[in-house]
């Protein structure tokens, strides 16, 4: 390439020939630009102009420079620039090429730059006119993209060049904002333009004169800081074009508007401008949209815009969105606001967010003195709306949502300006199903949803405490009206709730609707009570909207009726005279409400059955009616009355007179009808009492042995099928459970033979192994019943669904404790099936397993008392001991020990096994010995003094056992057994000096006298407590991870009082009603709230806080713009631990390293790696480098200019941070000195870290340039590799990061 010196020696004629030749070459290229030819043309173009080497020299020699220009040398300059600009379209997709072209064009003096600037301005002006006339001009768009890309690259050039940047350029580029297809190109160009202006020192700007003036009048305007007047470059024109954009652009998550806006306002503030646009409401409204809808970077720019906008404020800002004056107080409040926004919305560290809530309360709330918050409702709801965005993690949304509930309920600030926010952002979060289901608590006395109750209170506050005509109600959506919102009589809140429900429809968690309407009604009632003046009525269209709520469908039965009541109450509150308006929807709503005032079950009374000719009752009339009506008599609403009629008939009939075929036909018809209706409640609850009626059971047993019964008419098969299906249904439909279990109990007691005919064994086993429970979603029906009962007292849960599930547990347990003697083999098989999985566990046994249930062991305790014969006792003891030794969960061990103790109690001769095993316990695990001690303690009150003496002798020895578990068990048992001996008068034990001394010693121990807080220290009387109350309501259920009582004393009482069949003798007594119940009250709704002290503020952490300087895009050559900040590579291939590697990944990414090398790339996916990397691997280049290849890699790095530094302690290691070479005296040996290598780190550094144990291997040390070590002063001389790496990288940044 020709040099400037050679070209400068050419005369004018030769210059012209060379110029035209190069121009011809340039034009001859089919596509694109020949950069070599362009370089010659540009050098010849301005060879007599002063080259721009330094802006300062240009400034000093500007006059001389311009005096040497020769615009009349007849060179075709215009043709050159036309060619270049025409060919830019072919090059605009390659930033590297455009950068090189711009470098050529603008590196050879201001004259060429000025002429090029004029040409580009003309082209842009023409394009603006063409595009404004024809928006779909593809050629115009491509040309505009090319010119903008060229300008962008020209702004990236280093300061030794002359720039095409002036007010006219800014005006023309800004004019293209909003042109379809140019958005990204325009914003990228403006971004580069403002990035250029940020650098105030030593910049040279070419400024063309008016088009048409002689070329020699073109001049270069310079000042000491690079521009003659900063104000002449940046003005409000950029905002004018941004403001003209469609408002939808400001809600887009893909645009670059906010970056341009931020850079423009930052430059204006830097230049000391005062802009009037910041006093415009549109300025702040659009900024608000960005804070709510933007992605993370857009939101950061918006926060930067807020901070910078205050610097260009003329005096004060007074708009509905922003109220600000130049006082320090206002500035401090908005500094807090932006910091809180960063903490809550952008960074989202749970601990930091929680710590910031008191400050949030103080900032947004109204203090006790009544002074309003400096933060407007618009800005407050903007922060809250962004925090409740669905993209924010659930824990943060829950924290902020509950904080806001507390803010509203405690009246910490005016909420009139929050009305739109509540329906647009708060309710979409607050009505999510998980919030309701996770806060639902159910006890016998009360079933409540804490979140639902709090939500209802929030809505009530809005309905009651908001102003009639709030001045401004901001919205996060630009389409909603914000001014002059009519909230008289709570109108805006009412319509907001109604529209939210109707718009959400199937997307809303249905129980949430009940709480919204409940809160709305309570709030309106309070508002009406506080209002004395008449209020304007709603329009007919608004009333129609409210009435449309009544048409919502899909609710469960009780919730649907409650919804109808709420709709009726709401309509009466909104318009008391609504009935006189005769609106059809209102009429149907009133009719529905009146219907609800009747009883739930509209079944007709059982009809009287006339006896047949023989004087006996018969099923024939019913069969005839069934046949004649073609089953219409049992369909729909007639099903329940039909079932009741049949039950009444069967009650009056003798089973011997019942025809099996007739009975099968009737029951099959009813079963098929229920199956068709999918066993909905009115059908399912009436089937068990009929199918398992005592008469049906007797007929079933009677015909069980008959071989002449056709398969399709077998009553046994029908009942067995019904039994299995209803049991399956009972697991999901709790309303079937109680009536089904009670019917089966009655059937078993009617004729015990039915237990072996029908699948009772399988059903009882499945019931015990997997007790049916009420589904969480069905609990909302229970809660709805409680609400409905307040309006209509006769509408209780029982009136809809019958008895609760614990009545089913009582029926099953009662069946087991009264198990018929003739079916004892079935009871024993059930016991064996329950015991088998406990015995056959394989170690290690998990502490808790899904299949294990307390009910299994409770039932085993019942069955073992009458199913185990003495001949089988040893086998059962062995199996139970095996299960006990394997089991670690205290509650399960407690019940297993109780079962074993009852076996020893029933068969006293077996108790010697305990003493024998305690005497020869070698080889036993400590848990086994501890269990033997506990068993001895449990049966001691029922054994002889000889047994107890032997037991005391063993306890005395075990009280000093080195095994903690054994020693603690012996220490607990010894005083209790000694006390028993004294009460029994066993002097041999009571007077034994060794026993007396040991008793006195143990009783002095604090742990012995403490109240039992674990199940292991809970005292148990295996005989006195062996009753239903003790087993199912014992204290062992209430301590150490309390467990819900499945069944209670009163359930058995209710069962016995409601029995209509002769009951077998109960083998286990009911016992006395327990008096000590642990607290069962549900969680108070207010406990959910995130309460904060308004007067308490904390120092806010700003982890990863926003640095405004970092928001500005990078400049320079395209190849350098994505370069990592630190010219350091980390080699961690010698490290094996994924936890350490993950931590080093986090450190390397945080300090901006180029890359990190590890031995196995698969470790990046390891859970331990991810636990410490916090996703840093997503932003850092991590490569695989096998340990054996490290020396070769380091040699290659050296050839590329890196210096290889090892972090290792050697005799030549420099102290990290110490740059000079010197000597130091070894501590304690003044005559010994060591030469020290340099301890500083080079700028281009390859940092090698050693393995956790061996450090850097000899092979790697051989190729490192030098080593450094970190000076420590403690006894421990080594650091964890993560810590060492972090310290070293911090030291590199301290040295080179300035």
Automatic annotation (TrEMBL):
Keywords: Methyltransferase, Transferase. GO terms for molecular function: RNA binding; tRNA (guanine) methyltransferase activity. Residues 56-75 are annotated as: Disordered. Residues 56-70 have a biased composition (Polar residues). GO terms for biological process: tRNA methylation. The keyword Methyltransferase applies. Residues 1129-1290 form the tRNA/rRNA methyltransferase SpoU type domain. Pfam families: SpoU_methylase. The keyword Methyltransferase applies. PANTHER family: METHYLTRANSFERASE TARBP1-RELATED, RNA METHYLTRANSFERASE. This is tRNA/rRNA methyltransferase SpoU type domain-containing protein. It comes from Decorospora gaudefroyi. The lineage of its organism: Eukaryota, Fungi, Dikarya, Ascomycota, Pezizomycotina.
């Amino acid at each position: 390439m020709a040099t400037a010196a050679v070209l400068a020696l050419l005369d004018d004629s030769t210059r012209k020939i060379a110029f035209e030749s190069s121009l011809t070459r340039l034009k001859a290229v089919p596509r694109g630009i020949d950069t070599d030819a362009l370089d010659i043309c540009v050098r010849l173009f301005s060879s007599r102009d002063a080259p721009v080497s330094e802006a300062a020299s240009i400034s000093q020699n500007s006059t001389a420079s311009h005096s040497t220009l020769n615009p009349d040398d007849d060179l075709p300059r215009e043709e050159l620039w036309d060619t270049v600009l025409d060919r830019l379209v072919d090059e605009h997709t390659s930033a590297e090429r455009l950068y090189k072209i711009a470098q050529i064009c603008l590196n050879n003096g201001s004259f060429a730059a000025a002429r090029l600037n004029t040409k580009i301005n003309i082209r842009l002006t023409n394009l603006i006119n063409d595009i404004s006339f024809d928006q779909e001009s593809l050629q115009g768009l491509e040309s505009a993209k090319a010119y903008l890309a060229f300008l962008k690259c020209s702004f990236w050039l280093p300061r030794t060049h002359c720039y095409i940047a002036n007010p006219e350029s800014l005006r023309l580029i800004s004019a293209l904002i909003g042109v379809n297809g140019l958005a990204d190109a325009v914003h990228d160009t403006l971004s580069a333009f403002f990035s250029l202006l940020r650098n105030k020192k030593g910049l040279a700007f070419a400024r063309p004169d008016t088009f048409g003036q002689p070329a020699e009048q073109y001049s270069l305007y310079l000042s000491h800081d690079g521009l003659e007047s900063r104000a002449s470059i940046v003005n409000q024109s950029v905002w004018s074009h941004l403001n003209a954009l469609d408002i939808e652009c400001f809600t887009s998550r893909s645009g670059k508007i906010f970056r341009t806006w931020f850079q423009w306002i930052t430059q204006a503030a830097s230049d000391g401008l005062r802009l009037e646009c910041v006093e415009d409401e549109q300025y702040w409204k659009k900024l608000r949209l960005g804070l709510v809808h933007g992605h993370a970077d857009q939101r950061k720019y918006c926060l930067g815009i807020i901070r910078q906008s205050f610097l260009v404020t003329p005096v004060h800002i007074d708009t509905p969105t922003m109220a600000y004056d130049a006082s320090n107080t206002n500035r401090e409040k908005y500094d807090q606001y932006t910091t809180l926004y960063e903490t809550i919305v952008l960074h989202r560290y749970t601990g930091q967010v929680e710590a910031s809530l008191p400050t949030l309360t103080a900032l947004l709330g109204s203090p006790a003195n009544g002074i309003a918050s400096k933060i407007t409702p618009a800005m407050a709801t903007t922060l809250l709306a962004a925090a409740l965005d669905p993209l924010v993690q659930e824990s943060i949304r829950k924290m902020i949502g509950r904080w806001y509930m507390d803010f509203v309920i405690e009246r910490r600030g005016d909420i009139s300006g929050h009305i739109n926010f509540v329906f647009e952002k708060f309710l979409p979060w607050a009505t999510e199903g998980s919030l309701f289901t996770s806060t639902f608590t159910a006890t016998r006395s009360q079933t409540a949803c804490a979140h639902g109750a709090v939500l209802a209170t929030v809505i009530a506050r809005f309905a009651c405490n908001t102003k009639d005509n709030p001045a401004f109600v901001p919205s996060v959506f630009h389409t909603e009206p914000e001014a002059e919102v009519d909230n008289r009589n709570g109108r805006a809140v009412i319509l907001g709730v109604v529209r939210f429900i109707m718009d959400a429809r199937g997307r809303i968690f249905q129980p949430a609707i009940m709480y919204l309407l409940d809160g709305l009604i309570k709030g309106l009632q309070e508002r009406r009570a506080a209002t004395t003046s008449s209020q304007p009525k709603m329009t007919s269209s608004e009333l129609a909207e409210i009435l449309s709520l009544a048409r919502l469908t899909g609710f469960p039965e009780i919730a649907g009726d409650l919804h109808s009541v709420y709709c009726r109450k709401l309509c009466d509150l909104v318009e008391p005279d609504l009935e006189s308006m005769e609106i059809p929807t209102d009429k149907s709503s009133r009719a529905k409400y009146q219907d609800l005032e009747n009883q739930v079950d509209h079944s007709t009374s059982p009809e009287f059955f006339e006896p047949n000719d023989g004087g006996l009752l018969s099923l024939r009339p019913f069969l005839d009616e069934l046949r004649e009506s073609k089953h219409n008599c049992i369909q729909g609403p007639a099903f329940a009355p039909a079932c009741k009629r049949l039950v009444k008939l069967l009650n009056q009939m003798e089973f011997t007179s019942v025809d099996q075929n007739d009975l099968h036909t009737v029951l099959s018809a009813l079963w098929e009808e229920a199956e068709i209706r999918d066993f909905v409640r009115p059908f399912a609850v009436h089937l068990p009492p009929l199918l398992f009626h005592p008469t049906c059971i007797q007929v079933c047993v009677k015909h069980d042995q008959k071989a002449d019964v056709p398969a399709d008419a077998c009553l046994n098969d029908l009942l067995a099928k019904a039994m299995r299906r209803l049991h399956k249904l009972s697991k999901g439909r709790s309303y079937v459970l109680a009536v089904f279990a009670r019917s089966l109990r009655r059937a078993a007691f009617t004729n015990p033979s039915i237990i072996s005919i029908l699948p009772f064994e399988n059903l009882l086993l499945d019931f015990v192994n997997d007790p049916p429970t009420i589904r969480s979603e069905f609990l909302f029906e229970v809660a709805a019943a409680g609400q409905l009962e307040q309006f209509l007292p006769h509408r209780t849960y029982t009136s809809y669904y019958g008895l609760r599930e614990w009545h089913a547990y009582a029926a099953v347990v009662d069946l087991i404790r009264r198990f018929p003697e003739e079916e004892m083999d079935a009871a024993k098989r059930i016991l064996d099936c329950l015991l088998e999985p406990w015995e056959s566990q394989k170690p290690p046994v998990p502490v808790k397993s899904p299949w294990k249930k307390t009910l299994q062991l409770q039932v085993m305790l019942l069955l073992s008392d009458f199913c185990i014969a003495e001949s089988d006792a040893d086998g059962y003891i062995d199996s139970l001991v095996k299960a006990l030794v394997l089991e670690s969960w205290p509650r399960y061990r407690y019940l297993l020990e109780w079962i074993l103790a009852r076996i020893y109690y029933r068969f006293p001769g077996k108790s010697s096994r305990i003493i024998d095993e305690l005497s020869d316990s070698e080889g036993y695990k400590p848990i086994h010995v501890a269990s033997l001690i506990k068993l001895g303690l449990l049966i001691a009150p029922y054994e002889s003094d000889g047994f107890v003496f032997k037991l005391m002798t063993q306890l005395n020895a075990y009280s000093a056992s080195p095994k903690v578990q054994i020693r603690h068990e012996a220490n607990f048992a010894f005083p209790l057994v000694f006390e028993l001996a004294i009460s029994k008068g066993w002097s041999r034990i009571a007077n034994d000096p060794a026993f007396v001394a040991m008793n006195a010693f143990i009783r002095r121990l604090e742990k012995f006298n403490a109240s039992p807080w674990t199940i292991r220290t809970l005292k148990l009387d295996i005989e006195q407590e062996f009753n239903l109350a003790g087993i199912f309501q014992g204290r062992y259920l209430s301590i150490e991870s309390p467990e819900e009582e499945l069944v209670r004393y009163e359930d058995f009482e209710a069962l016995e009082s409601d029995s209509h069949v002769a009951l077998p003798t109960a083998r286990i007594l009911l016992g006395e009603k327990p008096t000590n119940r642990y607290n069962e009250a549900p969680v108070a709704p207010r406990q959910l709230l995130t309460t904060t002290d308004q007067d308490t503020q904390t120092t806010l952490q700003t982890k990863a806080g926003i640095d405004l300087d970092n928001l500005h895009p990078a400049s320079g050559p395209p190849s350098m713009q994505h370069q990592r900040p630190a010219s350091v590579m980390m080699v961690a291939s010698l490290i094996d631990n994924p936890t350490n590697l993950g931590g080093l990944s986090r450190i390397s990414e945080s300090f901006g390293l180029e890359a990190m090398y590890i031995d196995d790339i698969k470790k990046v996916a390891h859970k331990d790696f991810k636990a410490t990397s916090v996703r840093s691997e997503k932003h850092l280049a991590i490569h695989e480098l096998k340990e054996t290849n490290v020396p070769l890699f380091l040699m290659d790095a050296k050839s590329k200019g890196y210096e290889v530094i090892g972090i290792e302690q050697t005799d030549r290691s420099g102290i990290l941070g110490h740059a000079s070479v010197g000597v130091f005296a070894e501590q304690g040996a003044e005559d010994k000195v060591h030469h020290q290598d340099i301890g500083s780190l080079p700028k281009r550094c390859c940092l090698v870290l050693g393995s956790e144990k061996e450090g850097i291997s000899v092979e790697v040390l051989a190729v490192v340039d030098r080593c450094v070590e970190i000076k420590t002063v403690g006894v421990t001389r080594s650091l964890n590799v993560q810590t060492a790496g972090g310290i070293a990288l911090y030291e590199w940044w301290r040295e080179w990061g300035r």
